[in-house]
Amino acid sequence: MQQRHLKHLRVAFAILYLLFFFIIFVDFRNLFPVALIKGVTYLQFLPSIFKTIYAATLFSTGFIVVVVLTYLFGRVYCSVICPLGIIQDIFIRIKGFFKKNVFHYKKPLFKLHFSVLAIALLSLFLTKILLFVILDPYAISGRLFSDVARAIMIKANNFIVTTFDTGVSTFIYLIEEPPFNFAVFSFTMLLLLIVFIFSVLRGRLYCNSICPVGAILALISKKSLFKFRINTTSCDGCGKCIRNCKAECINVPGKEIDMLRCIACFNCLNVCPHDSISFSRNNFFREIIPSRREFISKSATAIGGLVAVPALAAEAGKPGNTFPVTPPGAVGLQHYISSCVACHLCVGQCPMQVLQPSFLEYGMRGFMVPKMDYHFSYCAYECTRCSDVCPSGAIVPLTIDKKKRIQTGMVRFIKEKCVVEEKGKDCAACAEHCPTQAVHMVPYKDGLVIPEITEETCTGCGACEYACPTQPNKAIYVIAHEIHKEAKLPEIKNLNMQVPDEFPF
Amino acid sequence: MLQGGEVLINNNKTYMNRRDFIRKSITTGIAAGASFGIFRNENIFASVSSSEGYGLAAVKGGEPDIMFKKGIEALGGISKFVMKGQKVLVKPNIAWDLPPERAANTNPLLVKTIVKACLQAGAKEVVVMDHTCHEWTKAYANSGIEKAVKDAGGTMAPANAEGYYQNVEISKAKILKTTKVHEAILNADVFINVPVLKHHSGSKVSISMKNLMGNVWERKPWHRDGLHQCIADFTAYKKPTLNVVDAYRVMMRNGPKGLSEEDTLLMKSLIISPDIVAADAAATKLFGLEPDDVGHITYAHDMGLGNKNLGEIKIKKISL
């Protein structure tokens, strides 16, 4: 195969990957298995690093694969795997239909780019803003698909069901729309707008000026084994490669392709009329030894920074005293908001739709980290979906048995607000829904029953808060634990009853 | 409660004289006609009681399918309730994502038997639904009811989103004046209510009238404004053609979900009646309580929706 066809291979893989990425975030029917989700998110750089720190398993090694891939072939991640990269390429192509894309060589913005990376790492240390959450391309894409695209898909689904009167069917059916969070939606769209503007004006500018993953991979790619090399003899300086370089990193006088900024899209190689560009390796042994040392020390510092800093960040900072309940598997508030990249994959995958994006409820450090919304729904007793799919280890993997023994919060009952106390009428909506009967009914006055709580069996699932009908505030609700505790399983007693032989009438 | 022009034959087998019979027939005929006017939705043609006089059948000691067959036979057969070409709604309890042995939902074999019987009687379609409490696709599947209905040739209807419901007024209601009901109940000619008898933390027991709660979209107002009265109010909206109370396995405590199989008792019983109040009264006694202990039974009786006094009803008791 001629090397110029590598571009087409790149495009094919990129489209395929983005399609699967889109699917796992937008899948509001939970049609696709956890294995697929894990496969897709495996190679996502930042979540994979976080997962290695917090919940290292076989599945957390993705970033190592990306590092090796980048060392071998340059920033192919940016063209084939990074969802935001592929989205930018789509924007660029669409813009090309209106006005032909003509790129020019631009000076690198290394000062800006590596400052952003340094600030992002430092900000984890100082715990003021989790810059990675805002700037990570995986998280931006995840939020775009989960918060915006999924909402649109659900509306489209419901439109189809009602308009075409699909009749009584469990094949296609109405889906309840999740609550609309204006702040989250606006912020997501704002970031998308910025990336859009950058891409139609300056190609992959975001990737080479702001993206923290891009900055890390640039350092590795500098010494990559395979590089794009211009054959200075056969090159006539026509400049066609420059005009097609989305990274704006090809310099004609120097006949050089800047591998720090090159995002390995193969456009240049594909368009060169003189076959003067090749994707090849130089002398393997001459380059490998010094650069290996350099590579190890550089990546050790970069990754070391990421490894060390979240632990430090966990000690500093003080979230508010009242904050939303965190999902089971979050371990504790500090762990959770330190390792969550706010990609909102768990939000889209939650079968109960109880996980919803927050905005500032967890402070700036927990910016847009998903929260449990017990007014809209509650956590199903035997479900572990969020912990199954979380790619960054913010919600650690759990078995169902482990999950039942986690107490994410404690139920609190306000008797004065309860229907039984206030109106003297039977209700019991809370006890009805409690999966462990931590909330159960006991005899009260006038033949009524009223809720009583056994704290040790409460899991903090929020079913009681969800079910409570009082307005405007709930008579029973969950107070979040900063660090999750252990819930005891309910005691199972014998029934000791006999069936009478005769009918009682 | 008398309906149509039936003759009252009580347990002592005394007969009315002709004058009394004519007088009673005319008055009940007027009442029936008037009630047909008030309860326009009640579909009196599909609501028939046995002409042999049995108002309730109680069966025990068999499997759910056998017990249903014997019970419905005693009431005159399924054709008394389902006519050829009619659309039937079978409404079991599918509230919880729990397997059949937990007895939180209606027994799937019973539902299967009823769906089959309706189709054999010539029903045009049999739709089965419940507005579940747990996540609906899991409740439908893990209760065993979805498979049972599909095997029997019925159709499961989703009830998980507000778009499936429509606003209705309930003029006779004391509290629940308006609510949103699932379209299945509006489209059906025949409404067969198939609750499972069990303990309930809020209403003491959950039987036929409580089961109707799964036909509405908003349940919170019932809990907030007076649970027992709202249960009776909604019964006034549309009384089922027939009530089949599953008491095969009964959750005796920690209802309506129970904590484990230990909460259940294998009672192997079944109660069938077109009178929803009578069915609930009988099932309450099976459970070990008195009908007067259960608020909504008394309210419904006082509203004229049925008869809680089992002594006034002719009951066919079958022990297998």
Sheet with most strands: strand arrangement of chain A: 1-4
Taking pLDDT < 50 over at least 5 consecutive residues as the criterion, the unreliable ranges of chain A are 284-291, 308-321
> In percent, how much strand structure appears in the residues of chain A?
5-15%
Give the overall pLDDT of chain B as a whole number.
Answer: 88
Q: How many β-strands of chain A, per DSSP?
A: 10
Helix content of chain A: 40-55%
Distance between the termini of chain A: 87 Å
Proportion of helical residues of chain B: 25-40%
Assembly type of the chains comes to heterodimer
The biggest sheet of chain B amounts to: 10 strands, mixed
If you average the pLDDT of chain A, what whole number results? 88
Number of strands of chain B: 12
Rg result of chain B:
18 Å
SSE-based structural type of chain A: mainly alpha
Query: What is the largest interface, and how many residues per chain?
Result: A-B, 44 and 56 residues
Q: How large is the count of helical segments of chain A? A: 22
What does it look like?
The complex is a heterodimer of chains A (505) and B (320). Chain A is mainly alpha-helical. Chain A is 47% helix and 9% strand. Chain A has 22 helices and ten strands. In chain A, the strands form five sheets. A two-stranded antiparallel sheet of chain A has the order 1-4. In chain A, a hairpin with a 5-residue loop joins strand 8 and strand 9 (449-453). By secondary structure, chain B is an alpha/beta fold. Helices cover 33% and strands 20% of the residues of chain B. Chain B has eleven helices and twelve strands. Chain B has helices at residues 18-38, 64-74, 108-120, 136-142, 145-152, 183-187, 208-211, 220-225, 227-237, 276-287, 295-302, and strands spanning 56-60, 87-92, 125-128, 155-156, 165-169, 178-182, 190-194, 196-200, 204-206, 242-251, 264-273, 315-319. In chain B, the strands form two sheets. In chain B, strands 1, 2, 3, 4, 7, 8, 9, 10, 11 and 12 form a ten-stranded mixed β-sheet that branches. In chain B, strands 5-6 form a two-stranded antiparallel sheet. In chain B, strand 2 (87-92), helix 3 and strand 3 (125-128) form a beta-alpha-beta unit. At the A-B interface, helix 9 and helix 21 of A face helix 4, strand 4, helix 8, strand 11 and helix 10 of B.
